[in-house]
Write a structure and sequence with these properties.
This protein has about 675 residues and is mainly β. Helix content is about 10%, strand content about 35%. The strands form 9 sheets. A 6-stranded parallel beta sheet has the order 2-1-3-4-5-6, sandwiched between helices. Strands 28, 30, 33, 35, 36 and 38 form a 6-stranded mixed beta sheet that branches. Strands 29, 31, 32, 34, 37 and 39 form a 6-stranded antiparallel beta sheet that branches.
Length: about 675
């Protein structure tokens, strides 16, 4: 009988409206026969009226019975349901009642949809859906283990109506809705065609989508999910933190299943930034005694710490107030106040401990990181700022020498110790200090991670930079039974397109050992089978020893970089480009369960070969000849790679340049 796709429209959203129209085209292109269940005769003013809603449900259900009664579903190779709104409930109910096994594409389902039994589905909803509570839909999807894709500020048609909600990306609602529709259809096509790459379900760095740029990550476990809050860079951006705050989350038990939670706070929501001339720099979040979530942030054009609040970890935050002294003076306005920057927060026993600071090397006017104690209202200062970690101008004899405070203060409690995490004057490293009290005194302990792997000597010299780096910002969190460090890497050859990564930590006798950058989050080796995107490279360098990306502008084209096509926000996978003579990309780590051949998808005018090694300075174990390619072209090595646990290094030797999109083990 072949494959059948059944379309169940909404009450006022027929099969020719955009979501269903394009979903039908996708299904038809994938070989499905399209069958529409069209219904009419609904009551007016249905929303909010349970009786009329039930009448509509029964009308639609009966119509479905008329249309589908003669279909032999048992003979079908595959049954795909494409449904909208009340059609989602009707479809799930009908399939359950008739014992029909189906897969479901559910656009803006109503809450009652989830009372039915179904397992293989993909869900789309908007944060301004008038017919369903986004938080309830999130929770229901979590309970059923379903992927849910959220469109910020979208209504029940998954369209944005209010242009003022577009934020700093700007444009028109038409532009935004076309781009959002493209994203939704991209995911619809993957699900419909079963195009998903199972390798991408493993633990990978970067852990968010390759087209997302969220640095400065602050991870927190709330309930059974881990949420990450950070600033928001732009692909091809010209400065830091150009976009609104977004949130991503994952189940505590599956750190490979990250979900985009949408925009949680817009740049123009702060009363001091209505014209959106300032940028939302790195934030942090604390849960207060009232059960609400408080978002602390700084705008780069102001010397204040602002606070927003929300009832949910990943809801839409509203401005709450400014951190201030008891007389109402804002923190940062007193002559004795040093720069308020990069807030890190810890709520404990009715008090909030707020850590701030920025100390450029050599600046004698900056003494170090500060802690300010706030009252239970999360705003009012109880104890004025005191210094907890020194700048390089005031570090002599403190034990912080060589790793003095630069920026990015963060705080966690590890057993009975308070751990202060920060970025040092070396920029690329996250260090930590420990104390018995949240206000100190703190003692320097060591480096947690470097986003250039500097200090790691297990596969290279300790002073060899193995990934072009610049600033670093992040924190640690206990997820399940283990501790993890979240940090960021730099892409596109610039400071301004940073991506979040994380690694599992090794903690011995209360001491954190420096983590190594990997492609697999230091959790479990990747399976050496199938296809992997090149953007998961954790090493990126050439024969010329260079550590830092320029603080302004971009690296020269002679240095390899991870980039993407299109413009910011386009759901296009990243790849490695500017592979010139001596350029190396490294991946850690693969488990070869059997002998494998390796192949690469190549583009560009390189003439030479890609050398494959298991050790950075080890012998060449395979070679892939390449020549100028005008389109992405697959090239495979003749040599066989032996089974075992291996790191992988790919070095281009030759003339010209090439790009690498993905790696295939076969």
């Amino acid at each position: 009988m072949g494959k059948i796709a059944i379309v169940f429209p909404g009450i006022g959203y027929n099969c020719d409206r955009p979501l269903l129209h394009y979903a039908k085209k996708i299904a038809a292109a994938c070989g499905y026969e399209i069958l529409e269940v069209n219904y009419s005769g609904f009551s007016n003013k249905v929303k909010g009226d349970p009786k009329r809603m039930q009448e509509c449900f029964e009308t639609a259900y009966n119509k479905a019975g008329e249309v589908l009664k003669d279909i032999d579903f048992a003979a079908a190779d595959d049954v795909l349901v494409i449904a909208k709104s009340i059609g989602c409930s009707v479809a799930c109910s009908y399939m359950q009642d008739h014992g029909i096994k189906a897969r479901f594409v559910l656009y803006t389902p109503l809450e009652q949809t989830f009372s039915y039994e179904f397992s293989e589905a993909i869900v789309f909803t908007g944060t301004l859906d008038q017919w369903a509570d986004t938080q309830v839909i999130r929770r229901k999807c979590d309970e059923k283990g379903l992927p849910v894709y959220i469109t910020s500020f979208a209504n029940h048609s998954l369209e944005i109506e209010d242009e003022s909600l577009l934020g700093v990306r700007g444009g028109t609602t038409a532009d935004a809705n076309i781009k959002n529709l493209a994203r939704i259809m991209h995911k619809t096509r993957e699900f419909t065609a079963r195009e998903g790459n199972p390798n991408l379900l493993q633990n990978l760095n970067p852990y968010m989508a390759s087209w997302e740029y969220v640095p400065d990550g602050e991870p927190y476990v709330f309930g059974d999910r881990v949420y990450v809050y950070g600033s928001h860079d732009k692909f091809g951006g010209n400065v830091y933190c150009e976009l609104d705050y977004v949130c991503w989350s994952a189940p505590v038990k599956d750190l490979g299943a990250w979900r985009y939670e949408g925009i949680i706070y817009r740049t123009g929501q702060d009363p001091d930034n209505k014209k959106e001339t300032g940028k939302l720099y790195a934030p942090d979040v604390a849960k207060g005694s009232d059960g609400r979530y408080y978002l602390y942030y700084a705008i780069n054009t102001c010397n204040h710490i602002s606070v927003a609040v929300c009832d949910f970890p990943a809801g839409e935050y509203e401005f709450y107030g400014f951190v201030h002294y008891k007389d109402g003076t804002r923190l940062g306005d007193k002559k004795t106040d040093e720069q308020q920057f990069d807030p890190g927060v810890l709520y404990e026993d009715g008090k909030t401990y707020l850590y701030t600071g920025f100390c450029a090397p050599g600046d004698i006017n900056k003494h170090g990181a500060m802690v300010t104690v706030l009252d239970s209202d999360m705003l009012t200062i109880l104890e004025a700022p005191r210094f907890v970690a020194p700048s390089d101008s005031y570090s002599s004899g403190t034990g912080f020498e060589g790793h003095e405070f630069f920026e990015a203060p963060s705080i966690r409690k590890m057993d009975d110790k308070y751990v202060f995490i920060y970025s040092s004057i070396k920029y690329h490293e996250l260090c930590y200090a420990a104390a018995e009290s949240p206000t100190g005194p703190f003692s320097y302990k060591g480096v947690i991670i470097s986003n250039g792997d500097l200090g790691i000597d297990t596969y290279k010299a300790a002073d060899k930079c193995a990934y072009y780096c610049a600033n670093n910002h992040g924190s640690i969190e206990k997820i399940g039974d283990d501790w993890y460090v979240f940090y960021h890497r730099h892409t596109n050859g610039t400071n301004y397109s940073r991506q979040g990564c994380f690694e599992k930590l090794e903690v011995k006798h209360g001491e954190i050992l420096q983590a190594q950058m990997t492609s697999c989050n230091s959790i479990k080796p990747l399976r050496a089978e199938g296809v992997y995107p090149a953007y998961i490279a954790c090493n990126l360098f050439n024969d010329e020893d260079v550590t830092y990306i320029p603080w302004s502008g971009w690296m020269e084209d002679k240095y390899p970089k991870i980039t993407q096509d299109g413009s910011d926000g386009d759901m296009l996978n990243g790849y490695v480009t500017s592979m010139q003579n001596g350029a190396t990309i490294g991946f850690k780590t693969f488990m070869f369960e059997a002998d494998k051949r390796i192949g690469l998808n190549i583009l560009g005018y390189g003439e030479g070969s890609m050398e494959i090694r298991f050790e950075l300075n080890g012998p060449v174990i395979a070679s892939i000849p390449i020549s100028g390619e005008n389109v992405w072209t697959y090239r495979q090595a003749e040599e066989v790679l032996p089974k075992g646990l291996h790191d992988l290094y790919i070095t281009f030797r030759g003339s010209g340049w090439s790009s690498v999109r993905d790696i295939t083990f076969s």
